[in-house]
Amino acid sequence: MDNTNQPLHPELRGLSVVITGGAKGIGLATAQAFARQGARVALLDMDAAALDEAVAGLAALGAEALACQASVTDADAVERAFAQVEQAYGRIDVLVNNAGVSANKPTLEVSVDEWRRAVDINLTGVFLCAQAAGRRMVPAGSGAIINLASM
After folding, report:
1. In this model, does residue 4 exceed pLDDT 80?
2. Cα(123)–Cα(86) distance, rounded to whole angstroms?
3. Of 55, 77, 79, 146, which cross-links 65 as Cys (Cβ 3.0–4.6 Å)?
4. DSSP secondary structure, 1-56, as one string
5. Is 68 helix (H, G, I), strand (E, B) or coil?
């Protein structure tokens, strides 16, 4: 019997998953992995063009995907994005905090502004998204937060 198209984790089918930094790289690969298991994915990213391309690619796989353009550093934008997901999917089961940046240069060459940007995205963004997800997960009595983003 060929089970190559069967999900490895059928318990993920129908879950609503928010992935920050989801339009490309590790975030998009994470979205694809969840989608292959039957989860509904919402990609939160600042790059509108990359979001559109990512959602189209996920739809081509037969996945249910939602684009949420927002900066993880903007508390109001994060709240609006999570409300959008909740309205579309009815709930939020999983948050994958993946958005992150680095100056990609030796520490002695990193400016204070570059450092602050990294802290805002990599730390404050994780906090704001976890808080927005938690406001929905705690009353529901369930949910999971996976933090990939780090310094």
Report:
1. no
2. 24
3. 55
4. ---TTS-S-GGGTT-EEEEETTTSHHHHHHHHHHHHTT-EEEEEES-HHHHHHHHH
5. strand
The DSSP output letter for 65 is E
Whether 33 shows a pLDDT value over 50: the answer reads yes
Per-residue pLDDT tens for 112-123?
999 999 999 999
DSSP 3-state of 61: coil
> Where do the domains of the chain lie, and which CATH numbers do they carry?
11-147 (3.40.50.720)
Cα–Cα–Cα angle for 116, 82, 138, rounded to 5 degrees:
100
- CA distances in angstroms from 131 to 11, 82, 111, 148, listed in the order given: 25, 10, 29, 16
